Task: structure prediction
Amino acid sequence: MQQDPNCIFCKIARGEIPSRKVYEDDGIVAFHDISPIAPVHLLLIPKVHVATLYETTAAHEAVLGRMMALAGRLAREQGANDGFRTIVNTGRVGRQEVMHVHVHVIGGPDPLGPMIARKGSQGD
Ligand code: 5GP
Ligand code: ZN
Result:
């Protein structure tokens, strides 16, 4: 499986950097974000190194689909059973910080803030 020796999430996938894992199979690892922004904040990653959604191809469809299909189950298992948000930040504009594709699963008992603040409008 293709990995990047310098990538922090590849190291987490290999177990070289500790993480609070909540799920693992042959292609996916899910773990708690080190700096959570809500009571539930998981990161789901493919074990294969893919930097961003610009680099994903048809070869990644199965693992990406499995990550999305797992999100609800893992959110519920962590206590987010009344909704959650999935986010995939991409590149500079998306403010992606770790260059290994990951899905944030963010939730908790209370509703989250607006996804993106809209300029000049009040909560539409
Ligand atoms: P991004 O901005 O790239 O979408 O999000 C990267 C996320 O990875 C951030 O929420 C950050 O807190 C998390 N993160 C960065 N380094 C580590 C780490 O070493 N362990 C864990 N568990 N999360 C990390
Ligand atoms: Zn990686």
Notes: Residues 61-77 form the longest helix (17 residues). The pocket of guanosine-5'-monophosphate (ligand 1) is lined by residues 8, 17, 19, 31-35, 43, 89, 95-98 (CB under 6 Å). Strands lie at 21-24, 28-32, 40-46, 84-87, 103-107. The chain is about 20% helix and 20% strand.
